[in-house]
Design brief:
The structure is a single chain. With 122 residues, this protein is mainly alpha-helical. 49% of the residues lie in helices and 11% in strands. The protein has 4 helices and 3 strands. It has a 3-stranded mixed sheet with strand order 1-3-2. A hairpin with a 3-residue loop joins β2 and β3. The N and C termini lie close together (8 Å). The mean pLDDT is 81.
Amino acid sequence: EALEALHDSVLWTYHSTGPEANQHNQERKQVKELITKREALKKKLLLEKAQGKAASTEDELKDVRSRLKQLMKVWTNTGYKYTGQTYREIGMQNSNYGGMENVGNTTILQSRLAPTDYISDG
């Protein structure tokens, strides 16, 4: 669950922020749907390969990736220029907030970086 939460957080950041955050709404919806489909196809493909079946989803996965690549071309001004020289990601043992970030680093609960059955925060 922790890795899925991290995946969703990164996806939200790239999908919903940046200089063009209020533009391309229809494309954003399509991108989100295609990414959800892509992730499901990747899991299905791994399962098919593990079971020794013919990977019937490979072509479908290639199609989804191609459609994503085309959709992403509508964004011309993405991201933010980082003004610092160094950026650190720090795992901490305890926090009331789960993590925080600033210009020089991001702190995140260590259990979110390396999830185990012993975590009490998730």
